[in-house]
Input
Amino acid sequence: MIFSGKRVLVVEDEFLVALGLEDNLRSLGCTVVGPIASLAGAMEAVAHERVDAAILDVNLAGEAVYPAASILADRGIPFIFCSGYTGSVRMPAEFADAPRVAKPYTSRAIAEALSELLSSGPSGETILHGPANASSEM
Output
């Protein structure tokens, strides 16, 4: 899938991870909105920014990103939860089927998840794992 012109919101509180993700998305042709590191900033962005998709870290400095995800869902904007917690933390029922990419992830895992998300939207729970020894891990 071609990502050129797709606006992707990045909500990630770890600076180096956010920087790597931003670089990865730009190399795919995306226009990156953010990165945003706080729940307050995420709430503002998801309510007002025009985006085609979002990548959301679950834990933002101790605050869950779920209120921002709810706004995205209400607006019909697809999103991916991207976190080290996705495999071990129970998701709220409303997000049980949301696509997820577990950290650490690879550039390829992000590209595949984004492609699936933008081509068909969320279609059941998707947990993607990149190879643990890949050089493009984030």
Q: What stands out?
A: The two ends are 22 Å apart (CA to CA). Residues 121-138 have pLDDT under 50 and may be disordered. The helical segments are 15-27, 39-48, 66-75, 107-120. The beta strands are 7-11, 31-36, 53-56, 59-60, 63-64, 79-83, 100-102, 127-128.
